[in-house]
Fold:
Amino acid sequence: MVEKDIVFKGKIKHKGIFDFKELYRFCFTWLVDKEYWVVEKSYSEKVNPNGKEVEIEWDAKRKISDYFRFNLKVNWRILGMKDVEVEKDGTKLTLNKGQPEISVSAVLEKDYEHRWEGSAFLKFLRGLYDRYIIRGRIEKYEEKIYSEADEFLAQVKAFLALEGKH
Structure:
């Protein structure tokens, strides 16, 4: 069984004007540029009287080695999304208004290829290997995925702050 250590959990909330298509593209591109393989597990839209409710779930994975893999789980929830017209530099733009919330959890996966699963003895050896032989490497990877998840949320927050100034 893959051993998963949740290293980071965080979320950002925004209320106001933003460009949904650009936000989606920005987030996706940021992850792909960091060499993550992004899979959209679900996408749903519900139309309510006060706007659309959008929910998106991404599973982004990046192979680090044959033993380690980074996994970022990104969940979107946008409430009350409506189209609005905004004028910027004399040009009318159609943007979105609503309350996007993006949450991220970062998971360090160990033995994701199930190489240490053959027997109880191999599982025991894996425990020794993790605790005593590669503890420093595990801590280094935990710091790395933590900083990447934190950086992702910081970049999204900065993007929304810039987009909201119309």
